[in-house]
Structures are given as structure tokens and as C-alpha cells.
Amino acid sequence: MTDLTRLSAADLAQKLRRREVTSVEVTQAFLDRIAAVDGAVHAYLHVNAEEALATARDVDARREVGEELHPLAGVPIAVKDVVVTRGMPSTAGSKILEGWVPPYDATLVEKIRDARMPILGKTNMDEFAMGSSTEHSAYGNTHNPWDLERIPGGSGGGSAAALASFTAPLAIGTDTGGSIRQPGAVTGTVGVKPTYGSVSRYGLIALASSLDQAGPVTRTVMDSALLHELIGGHDPRDSTSIPEPLPALVEAAAQGAGGDLSGVRVGVVSQLQGEGYQEGVQARFTESLELLRRAGAEVVQVSCPHFEYALAAYYLILPAEASSNLAKFDGMRFGLRVEPEDGPVTAERVMAATRGAGFGDEVKRRIILGTYALSAGYYDAYYGSAQKVRTLIQQDFDAAFEQVDVLVSPTAPTTAFKLGEKLDDPLAMYLNDVATIPANLAGIPGISVPNGLAEPTDGGAAMPTGFQVLAPAKADDRLYRVGAALEAALEKSWGGPLLDRAPELG
Ligand code: GLN
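That is the input. Now the predicted structure with glutamine docked in place:
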């Protein structure tokens, strides 16, 4: 029998519909794979085996009696641990939420449950989604399935590594500055950050509310489109949710897979290449531009002059919002509660002891930064200036999208680095998101598509690279058309999916 864990979600869905396989068989195959390889990868913080199998049995019974089901019914999924799940631990990778079991589901989880998709478990991440390597998790790091000595990206390294190690056919990620796309790039998987407001944030443990967006983590562009259509759409429980239907994403992916991009204008962002970008990353990117040209696209250079300030603006806006969002973790309401070692047990001292013990170094660093940037006398100089830069970046995008339909760049400047390499150098860590952050500041959608392998500068086996496509707000369909066309052209040149070349685990 074919190895079910190797199939795309679209193929699994089709086999389920045709009753060639049951959801119990599919779900069990992934649970077996988790048992076999996740000890080495550590993509999961919590495996939800019993409930996943119960959902699978239920959906099989419904299919048996001919009930009309969602196209993804019975296809299992993994969920990043920053998304709250009723009855299942939701720690956001932090000690401070250890032992907290949410009494409700995020809207996107509700949709997953309504579609009757078994939830395999919760995936590892940098604490409160702060990081680019998943090394800031309080529960140990995740390994890159291509080379276990290297990072899987972050903050959503767990979801990406689950896809790359075939322990889930679909996963949910969140992207505040690149945490879906950058892990996708360095693990050879697909990741999509939807338009801000197009997937509900209700039930996401907030990092930076004006930047956060949940989205699909998959192995193929079509799988992302299928999942995106399920989780997206208006939600009255999220006040920033766009009250409009999504564009036709699956249709756009199908059209793109046909390989014809004639009439599509592609802009290469001059500021997102060159210095700081690894030679092999740049080379694969240039080769892919040629494939887009051959598919009929017109490729031009576009300048976005304010992008050079994006990272600096982001690291004021994000800590400012995060310091406010994380104020609710006080030892009173959720998870951990630590009493002071000596002296009186007052509310303030319990809060200080809990936050001191419960938050990791990176979280503390950002809370201090954010609190400072928001303090009286500094607000205008820091937060105010950063907001002005944000507007300039939005204007760069507006001007660029008058000339072209999509913008492109490498997703991340380098291939996956070694575990531990950048842990003591926050600025080096922050630079991983130099190409992904502008989209979050502007609220526009982006996709990372596997873009071939490149030699790491420090030796070892060749590692994945990603190709990023950005589109105007609410035009997420363009990501899927261009992404699917590129995927089809690349897979033709490779003779199959990139992940077929990953080393065997277990
Ligand atoms: N790596 C970036 C950060 O540390 C992005 C995080 C994210 O998208 N959640 O903030």
C-alpha cells in the first residue's frame, strides 16, 4: 500500500471521498509516523491521539451513511500551540502557560472541527512566537528534518518540521513578521500569510495584534489554498476581520498549475536581494525568475526605498504591542503561579515572581523594549516614528502594485543555520525576517514556495530555500496562481517534489 503520510492533503481527501481509505487509517498512519520520528524532530508539544482517532471514527461513520462532508473531512491537521484549543494544552511555547487548558476554541479551530478534521496535536514554537529558530521554546527546540543539527525556522518551526518530516499532511501557523514563511523556506515546505484580517484572530494568543495573522503550512500550493479557504472569511468575534468573502483561492491554484502566466507582471524588489543574501539562495531565486518568464510572466525590477527601515520599525511596533498583550499573564488568571521565596505574599510580588520565572529571556527583552518605547516622553520619538515608517512602507507597496501584479524576493536571506549559532545574538536572529516583515507592516499577503537547495556556507548537505510572492491586500488569489505555476515548473525540472530529496528519518 502507498505510504499515506507521503500523500498531499488533496490526494488524501480524494482517496477518502472515493472510500479507498478511511480516516482512521490515515490518522493512525500519521500517529505511527509521529511515534517513529518525532523523538528526533520534536515538532509536537502535545499529541492528541485519542481525540484525533475519535474524530476519525466519527467522520468514517458519517461517510458510510452518505452524509455530505467538507472536502477536507477526515484529513488530519496539526495546530501551532499559540492557537487555543478547547480541552488541549495551549502553551504558546511558554512556561507561564504550562498546565493551562483553554475552555474554548479559536474560530479557526472551530472551523477545523466543523469540517471534521482530526487534530493530531499542537506544534512547537518560539515562546509567544518571538524568534526565527524555535530555539526560544520553553519546551526544547525542534530540529530541521533535512539536517537535525540545524534550525527549522521560527517561530513556527514545529508546524513546518511536521510537514517536512511527514508527521502531518496540513498544519496551522501564525505569521507576525515571517513565522509561517521563513520556516517554510528553510524546511522546503509551503507557507502562506493571508491578508491581515482575512483569517480570524479570535483565539490566537496575541503577540502583536496589528501584525498577527494565522495561515496554512503545507507541502503543496494547492493544499494551502484548500486550507486557506476553510479557515478564512469574516468573523464577527474579531473586530479587525474583513467583512467580505475571500477570493477564489483553489481556483487560482488550479489555474496556476496549468503553467500559463501570460499577462502577469512580476516585480523583483531591488532592496530584498544582494548584500546579506547567501549566494546559493540568490542563485536559486534568479533561476526561478527565468522559469516565471518562460511561463509568460513579464519580470521587471521594482524599488521600495523604505524597506531598509522595516526591520527597525517592526522591532519597535512589535515589542510595544507585545508588552501590552503579555500584561495579562500575571499569575492570577492563567497557568503558572509562583510565590515569592521570602517576604510577604502580595499580589504585586506574586506577579513579579511569576513573570520572572515564567517568561524566557527573549520575551523579557521585548517586554522591556516595548514598555520603554511606550513610556511618556518617548512615545512620539519611538512608537510614533515607527508608525510613520510603517506608512511609508505601505506607500512603497501601493506604488509598486501600480506597476506590477505581484512582488517577489527570496523568502529568507540564508538557508537554515546550525542550532545554537545565533542564540546569543538577537540582532543576527532578527535579520532572518528582513524579507518577510514588510508584508506584515502593510497587512498584505505572502507565500513561500520551495525553491530548490543551496549549499550552506558552513558546509554540510544542501538545504532548502524559499521563493516569496507578495500581492496587494485582498488579492491572495494571485499568490496561488503564481505560486502554483512556479511549483509546477520547478517540480518538472526536479522530476518530483523537493521533499523527495530529504534524508530518510527513523
Ligand atoms: N521572527 C520574527 C520575530 O521574532 C517573527 C515572529 C513571528 O512572525 N511570529 O518577531
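Residues 107 and 183 are 24 Å apart (CA to CA).
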